């Protein structure tokens, strides 16, 4: 019986959530969708876990596709025996006036027969807080933060209720901080009073500290469906489970691939360039000779490892926002984002063929493409690197054991590309667990 069945809107969001579930002592595995609605073979192959997170690629997909994939994931989790369900979206509420957060929540509430759920994007440990319904990124309101300039989902309002209302057919209500701080029973009473007699209700809840998350989860313990950022999982009761983070570590060559254009990733790239050998993708070369350009990068990295086994090549796509200001405009031309995503997948295949066993991938789209191209179907979650970022163990379609860290663009310390490797030190288990095989 799986205690929590979770649906995440991208790959790095799924690993963010899994990191926090493991941190609370829940043995967790991430499955990579979209799922096959005809069977639950992927879930059946994973045994002995407390939580399953299905990673979709639905954050910026067409609304109908995002809803369809989310419902298929829910049905799969139901067949696996999930007791409760968790819809995970970005802690900066990345979306448009049309979705996809609201439509997915509506569809899951309708499917599960639920009339009320909570909306909790707050993740205080990662600097995401909500006060009086307004979402902050650090000390800045969401619409005054770098998320205002996001190339796919520019966030131009900080009010979560105002962002959600155009996306949903449900009534949108709020529970503010004084009620949260009054404790779980006050939250439960407020949720009960906000239930709509003639429809669904989504309740946005203030979150300023990690302790608030515990109060919220305790106050919503009777709800079968909860929604939020990955931080909400930190509100689950912690349990002692020293083996929850057990994974197999395979020493060997390592590399960093960055397809994200976020401010935090650009800062991490700048730091990495000072300490690591680096190569910036040349989009013109990729457009005119994709295979040759990829082969040259793989050859460059292979030479580094031959000269120094501990070398960590950094391959990235963006230095500044100027790199994403212009895109392919010819009809039928491949967009720069799609080209970068395709290149990262091909480079990852070349690196693994060359012997890489430890890999950091930055960016949700890049992470999804890398895993798909390597034929990875699931990931066992291991030691945390920072809030929302973790190491994991995966097996490729060629039965290669690989340690991977999949980083959301906005997460991770500035020096992550040079310091994250130390988190694997001291883990010496050599036998694969059942969920890694």
UniProtKB/TrEMBL annotation:
<dbReference type="GO" id="GO:0005524">
    <property type="term" value="F:ATP binding"/>
</dbReference>
<dbReference type="GO" id="GO:0016301">
    <property type="term" value="F:kinase activity"/>
</dbReference>
<comment type="similarity">
    <text>Belongs to the four-carbon acid sugar kinase family.</text>
</comment>
<keyword id="KW-0119">Carbohydrate metabolism</keyword>
<dbReference type="InterPro" id="IPR050007">
    <property type="entry name" value="OtnK"/>
</dbReference>
<keyword id="KW-0067">ATP-binding</keyword>
<dbReference type="InterPro" id="IPR042213">
    <property type="entry name" value="NBD_C_sf"/>
</dbReference>
<dbReference type="InterPro" id="IPR037051">
    <property type="entry name" value="4-carb_acid_sugar_kinase_N_sf"/>
</dbReference>
<dbReference type="InterPro" id="IPR010737">
    <property type="entry name" value="4-carb_acid_sugar_kinase_N"/>
</dbReference>
<dbReference type="InterPro" id="IPR031475">
    <property type="entry name" value="NBD_C"/>
</dbReference>
<feature type="domain" description="Four-carbon acid sugar kinase N-terminal">
    <location>
        <begin position="5"/>
        <end position="236"/>
    </location>
</feature>
<protein>
    <recommendedName>
        <fullName>3-oxo-tetronate kinase</fullName>
        <ecNumber>2.7.1.217</ecNumber>
    </recommendedName>
</protein>
<keyword id="KW-0547">Nucleotide-binding</keyword>
<dbReference type="Pfam" id="PF07005">
    <property type="entry name" value="SBD_N"/>
</dbReference>
<comment type="function">
    <text>Catalyzes the ATP-dependent phosphorylation of 3-oxo-tetronate to 3-oxo-tetronate 4-phosphate.</text>
</comment>
<keyword id="KW-0808">Transferase</keyword>
<feature type="domain" description="Four-carbon acid sugar kinase nucleotide binding">
    <location>
        <begin position="255"/>
        <end position="417"/>
    </location>
</feature>
<dbReference type="Pfam" id="PF17042">
    <property type="entry name" value="NBD_C"/>
</dbReference>
<keyword id="KW-0418">Kinase</keyword>
């Amino acid at each position: 019986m799986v205690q929590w069945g979770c649906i995440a809107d991208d790959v790095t969001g799924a690993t963010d959530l899994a990191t926090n579930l493991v941190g609370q002592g829940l043995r967790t595995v991430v499955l990579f969708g979209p799922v096959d609605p005809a069977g639950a073979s992927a879930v059946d192959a994973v045994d002995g876990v407390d939580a399953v997170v299905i990673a979709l690629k639905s954050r910026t997909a067409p609304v109908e596709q995002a809803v369809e994939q989310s419902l298929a994931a829910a049905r799969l989790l139901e067949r696996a025996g999930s007791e409760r369900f968790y819809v995970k979206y970005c802690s900066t509420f990345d979306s448009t006036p049309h979705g996809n957060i609201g439509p997915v929540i509506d569809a899951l509430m309708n499917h599960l027969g639920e009339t009320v759920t909570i909306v909790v994007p707050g993740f205080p440990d990662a600097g995401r807080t909500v006060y009086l319904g307004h979402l902050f990124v650090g000390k800045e309101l969401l619409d005054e933060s770098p998320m205002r300039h996001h190339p796919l989902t520019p966030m131009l309002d900080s009010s979560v209720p105002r962002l959600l209302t155009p996306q949903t057919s449900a009534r949108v209500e709020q529970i503010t901080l004084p009620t949260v701080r009054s404790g779980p029973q006050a939250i439960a009473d407020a949720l009960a009073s906000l239930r709509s007699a003639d429809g669904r209700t989504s309740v946005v809840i203030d979150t300023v500290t990690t302790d608030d998350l515990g109060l919220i989860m305790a106050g919503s313990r009777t709800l079968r469906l909860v929604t939020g950022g990955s931080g909400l999982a930190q509100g689950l009761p912690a349990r002692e489970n020293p083996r929850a983070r057990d994974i197999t570590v395979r020493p060997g060559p390592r590399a960093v691939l960055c397809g994200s254009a976020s401010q935090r990733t650009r800062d991490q790239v700048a730091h990495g360039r000072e300490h690591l050998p680096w190569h910036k993708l040349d989009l013109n070369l990729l457009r005119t000779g994709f295979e040759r350009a990829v082969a040259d990068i793989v050859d460059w990295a292979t030479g580094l490892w031959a000269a120094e086994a501990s070398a960590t090549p950094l391959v990235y796509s963006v230095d500044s926002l100027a790199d994403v200001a212009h895109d392919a405009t010819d009809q039928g031309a491949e967009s720069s984002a799609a080209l970068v995503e395709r290149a990262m997948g091909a480079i990852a295949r070349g690196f693994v063929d060359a012997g890489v066993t430890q890999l950091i991938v930055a960016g949700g789209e890049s992470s999804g493409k890398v895993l798909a191209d390597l034929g990875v179907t699931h990931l066992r979650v291991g030691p945390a690197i920072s809030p929302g970022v973790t190491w994991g163990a995966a097996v490729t379609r060629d039965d290669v054991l690989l340690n991977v860290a999949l980083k959301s663009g906005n997460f991770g310390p500035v020096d992550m590309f040079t310091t994250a490797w130390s988190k694997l030190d001291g883990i010496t288990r050599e036998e694969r667990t059942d969920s890694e095989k």
